[in-house]
Amino acid sequence: LFIFFTGRYLYLQIASPKESASDTPLSSYDTTPETDVDKRGLAYLTMLQYAKAHKLPLLGICGGEQMLAGSEGAMMKIGIKGHKIGGEVIAHKVQIEPGSLLASVIGAPEIMTNSAHSEAVINEKCGNCIITAVAEDGTAEAVELKQPWNDFVLGVQWHPERFVKKGDQPSIKIFSSFIESAKGYQSQKKHPGQSN
């Protein structure tokens, strides 16, 4: 899932369950999956390139986090055990890196998240990314960029959109902060040179 704001429109790309192909290019994997990137994955790459070229706020969720990281040179690991639990239930604790964008958004050192993935960024091979949250087993759960193109470029491995409707405050804060960033971006586009 990618969410980004162009200044006029909020774009939301939701992934449907994949069957045979991957969202992330083969070159981003430590061990090669059976298939290369599919049409949806190519659409994600195009959206990501557009967001970067236009310096848009961006929130990558699950495969969107992996795609963001892969586009910045990170490598993925397939076959992560114990993380494909489901998106509607609390699965595990996530430790957040102090001083990160995610820490400033959440305002807490740890949160409880859902988990519905079997692939993850390899912590030691994260390219131009910074791992800003990890699960209890050390699995990367959030990435930010060493040199972000916008003040809000964040990828999270879990699905906060599934917890918003339950009133989960960390999930609400992620989307609220993203929306505020998008409003700031829009304001800058309308009034260049003014600070927010």
List the helices and strands and how they pair.
Layout: E1 2-5, E2 10-13, H1 39-53, E3 58-61, H2 63-71, E4 76-78, E5 84-86, E6 92-96, H3 101-106, E7 110-113, E8 115-116, E9 119-121, E10 129-135, E11 140-145, E12 153-156, H4 161-164, H5 169-190
Parallel strand pairs: 3-12
Antiparallel strand pairs: 1-2, 1-3, 4-9, 5-8, 6-7, 6-10, 10-11, 11-12
Helix pairs in contact: 1-2
Order of helices and strands: EEHEHEEEHEEEEEEHH
Roughly how many Å is the radius of gyration?
A: 16 Å
Count helical runs: 5
> Residue share in helices?
25-40%
Structural class: alpha+beta
Structure, explained:
The protein is α+β, with helices and mostly antiparallel strands and 196 residues long. It is built from five helices and twelve strands. It has helices spanning 39-53, 63-71, 101-106, 161-164, 169-190, and strands at residues 2-5, 10-13, 58-61, 76-78, 84-86, 92-96, 110-113, 115-116, 119-121, 129-135, 140-145, 153-156. The strands form three sheets. An eight-stranded mixed sheet has the order 2-1-3-12-11-10-6-7, with helices on both faces. Helix 1 packs across helix 2 (63-71). The longest helix is centred in the C-terminal third of the chain and has 22 residues, at 169-190. The model is unreliable at 5-21 (pLDDT under 50).
